[in-house]
Amino acid sequence: MKTDSSQNTMATRLAEQIRTRIAEEQLPAGHVFMTEGQLAEEYQVSRTIVREAVSRLRALGILDGKQRKGLVVRRPDLVQLLSESLPLLTVSSHERDELKLLRYVLEIGAIELAVKNATESQMDQLDALVAEMQSCLEDQEWERSVELDLAFHSLVLEMTGSKYVAGMQQILAEYFHSLPEIDRLDSGRSARIVWEHAELASAIRRQDREHARVLIRQQFEDLI
């Protein structure tokens, strides 16, 4: 009789074999793969092992079940996977530090693409966000200032033209803003942030990559 450990190992191996097969055969999304019974027969494993392996691949968005057809190939949504995984990472300070580093790399690495690809409409939106941030500073609307900061950086990442970069940044930013220990803004810090965002918007409009890099580093240096 197989132990739980050996079943887990066999399920892991089978899941990897299926994933490799899908990749090597370049099976498109929507392709009907095979049934669980066919998998059990072809790979000479029990239905229990097959169900566990398939369950893992379904959780990753690689396979899905279709009634009366069997298993269907899907393309995983990387942004959705990150979004669903983040709540599990709140228990470890080390993992939160890793996520901070990931966000830092995304923000710093993306700024050149943002400067290069920003449209006139997007730059106008940045200016409008900065103007609203200034208004919030004058009215001491600190919570709204945090929301505008998130919207500003989300827009900067959209300027890269990459849905993965923009999507992952949005999820990470919302995650850190949701943490109970996040520092809230006061008037002095908020004024500095408004100035930095105004300067960054101006640098993007002028296509001044060097100044934009300096400013984005200043804004996120506390993440590392």
From TrEMBL:
Pfam families: FCD (PF07729), GntR (PF00392). Residues 8-76 form the HTH gntR-type domain. GO terms for molecular function: DNA binding; DNA-binding transcription factor activity. The keyword DNA-binding applies. Signal peptide: none annotated. Keywords: DNA-binding, Transcription, Transcription regulation. This is HTH-type transcriptional regulator LutR. It comes from Gimesia chilikensis.
